[in-house]
């Protein structure tokens, strides 16, 4: 069932006709953005909850932080509807590992983790105008997830990566635009940034 839903979603995004699309003035674009609530942070948060539960409360995480994702993308416009390119993104985050001693928590170590991913991607425009556009984006790839600190192993892991942003808007002129994407994956639930076309 999951495979059927995934195939249908990809077909919907990539096969969608652009409504009242206008031919773009520029064929290339560079995007720089920041993403909030990426998949990596959800997994580490879930792991922290499980650690607390299975240690019966003797271990916990405190003072958690995350930079969010920093993203750089390139796209080449193929026609009024489609653009193809790639995403490079990275993240750094961590927390203090706390151990219960004599009824209170004391710092027992640090966990720091990060990631860097490369995802070939495609965008399908639902509506394209010189000042406002709507599109969907899908990126699939792989990259490295690594951890460091006194409470972790310093070994990177090679893992698959994805980003699906079904709802995205961009505003501005022909060359300079701001954009906001709502989705899920390695870039985050919310991705906001600046786009330069040339």
Molecular structure report:
The protein has 198 residues and is mainly β. The chain has a single domain, classed as Porin (Beta Barrel). The chain has two helices and nine strands. The chain has helices spanning 2-14, 39-54, and strands spanning 28-36, 59-66, 69-77, 82-101, 104-128, 132-148, 157-172, 176-185, 190-197. An eight-stranded antiparallel β-barrel has the order 1-3-4-5-6-7-8-9. The termini are far apart.
Could you give a quick summary of the protein structure above?
By secondary structure, this protein is mainly beta. 15% of the residues lie in helices and 62% in strands.
Write the layout of secondary structure elements.
Blueprint: H1 2-14, E1 28-36, H2 39-54, E2 59-66, E3 69-77, E4 82-101, E5 104-128, E6 132-148, E7 157-172, E8 176-185, E9 190-197
Antiparallel strand pairs: 1-3, 1-9, 2-4, 3-4, 4-5, 5-6, 6-7, 7-8, 8-9
Distance between the termini: 42 Å
In round numbers, the mean pLDDT is: 86
The spatial strand order of the largest sheet comes to 1-3-4-5-6-7-8-9
Poorly predicted runs are none
Which structural traits does this protein have?
198 residues; mainly beta; Porin; eight-stranded antiparallel beta barrel; 9 strands; 15% helix; elongated
């Amino acid at each position: 069932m999951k495979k059927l839903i995934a195939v249908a979603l990809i077909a919907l995004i990539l096969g969608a006709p652009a409504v009242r699309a206008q031919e773009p003035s520029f064929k290339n674009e560079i995007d720089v953005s920041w993403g909030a609530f990426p998949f990596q942070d959800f997994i580490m948060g879930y792991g922290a909850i499980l650690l607390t539960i299975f240690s019966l409360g003797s271990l916990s995480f405190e003072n958690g932080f995350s930079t969010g994702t920093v993203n750089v993308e390139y796209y080449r416009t193929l026609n009024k509807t489609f653009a193809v390119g790639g995403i490079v993104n990275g993240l750094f985050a961590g927390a203090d590992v706390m151990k219960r001693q004599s009824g209170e928590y004391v710092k027992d170590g640090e966990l720091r983790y990060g990631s860097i991913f490369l995802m070939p991607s495609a965008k399908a425009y639902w509506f394209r105008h010189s000042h406002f556009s709507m599109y969907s984006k899908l990126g699939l790839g792989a990259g490295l997830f690594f951890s460091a600190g006194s409470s972790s192993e310093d070994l990177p892991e090679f893992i698959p990566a994805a980003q699906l942003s079904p709802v995205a808007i961009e505003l501005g002129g022909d060359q300079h635009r701001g954009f906001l994407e709502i989705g899920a994956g390695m870039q985050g639930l919310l991705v906001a940034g600046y786009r330069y076309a040339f």
